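Explain this record to help learners:
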Amino acid sequence: MRKVRQDNEGVQYEFNLNACCDIPETAIIQAFDFHQDADRTLYLALAYQHDDQDTSAHLMLSQPFQPSLLQEGEIIPKLKGEEKKLGPVKRISMTPMPTVIQSSAEYPLVLLTHENFDQLTSWGDDITEVIVEPNLTGWFTSNALSTPVNVARVLDIATATNFHGQGIFVLYETSSGESRVYGQFLKPDDQSSDGTIFRFQTEVQCPSGTSRLLCSFKLIVNVLLDTQGLSTARDSRKNSALLLGSSSGLHYLDANRAVDKNATPELISREDEIQGCKSLKIVQDDNLLSIWFTSGIDQLGYIRATVTELADKALQRPVLLMTAGESTSFAPLIIKPCSRRGDVAWQTLVSNDYYGNLTLLEQATDQGLWRAKPYYSNDETEIYPVESFSMTITAFDKDHSPLRDSSVHISAASAVTGLLNGRAVTLTGSGFWYKADSEGMLNLIIPTKGIASQSLTIDSIQNADGDTLVTERTLLDPNRKVMNRLEEKLKSFRSIEDLKDARTEDGELLFNPNDMPSDEDLQNGLQSFHLLCEAYNQLPADGSSPEIRPEGWFDWAAEAWNWVKDRFRDARDWFVDTAGEPSHISKPR
């Protein structure tokens, strides 16, 4: 298992995490999962095999530890547990830590998903529970969670906590091809001295057209027959609500109704982008959450919301971020506002491509633009290029001599990350003092694959002694030069014949003569270009965000730009809000 760590200077280090986990360096990791509490405490569970010959799994559970131990030379303390081999593990899932009201458990419930395990009651994948004993004295496994006899395969898993304790929802396909969900919740009996565990059980309310089934020790949730993904989100009381994806869209059961055998999921989002969604994954930080999904045609998208908006079933329009094939797997994160990062919420996504390369995408939610930069390259023999733009700022005194070791107060139109004199920084709207080098220079590098960037404002300078010097407010807009060139190019298209003859900077024709769009499409595109130029000229000159309409079209377009730029030919609608009437730019499919 490899770990990639980025320090305060933005330098990344990679090392083998096996040594930290005190397992053989050559061990093959079958599956692992992390859970992190609000106080940053980490819990780790991993299953590994010794070599290619013996595929049986050995399990390692860590004691609670801090992120500082995730570096070379440190050893993560382990919990003592059963010394027995398990069937090959395909997936590990850890529940959130319960509140004291939900359960007295001191460790997340760990669930191991196997393939063709030795449970006679199952026809497909099975799940093993790993339960940690009181006072973290050890752990043991249980197979009380046996899958129903008509299971053909497990489709998805979502962990949960509620007043029944810690548990799991399992989406599975029956032998007749129907999609169903079952779940189980358990909690220790605090009045017992023999380790008794309470398990929640209920009778199944089946969807129309299926037979009625009674499953002991299981909670069955009534779901649509074509459910393809599920995930959970914690409400204000830390109880887990359940979300389900189907061909109709996104469905919702609040925490109480998710454990009600008579409840029917509510359709809360029916937008085209989310119909047929799968691979649902919800990330959450307190009241903020993001619902990530892959669409029916494998495009990666998300819905950003709050716990309140989810409870009120008032979700925003889904945003598509990556086109089909760009990401084979992904790991999202959302961070609530803090002063260190500009008092705005941040979203982060690590995406894996077909070649094993990792890309880090970041978004400050005040403006919504996503920035992508390489995070890890699977090729150790060559230097990996990083697309970016750079800017050099030099502070001078009244005699035009460089202000050595001075400090410059810089703010950004919206929060953005980058490297300033080799150190990772977050430029924010409120601004911060940044120290120049011995030549009075600040070298800023912002990784980006696009032409959009936040404008910067310099409003004050301090000399090396800390004296504030009077200076004019200076606006730096890195977009201006590029956008002016783009505007000039777009205005040069006066007829559809100009579009047919248009060439790229490399001299290649923009359109293949053998696959030329129709004259009608070209005329619509020409009108759209002219309208885009008109809208751009009405944007605020200081680079700040224009007024946002209640419909949120500008916000949606900004967030979706990473996807739109890769799907220009298929884009149906663009909206640019210029604090007047929204400009609607349309291009037929």
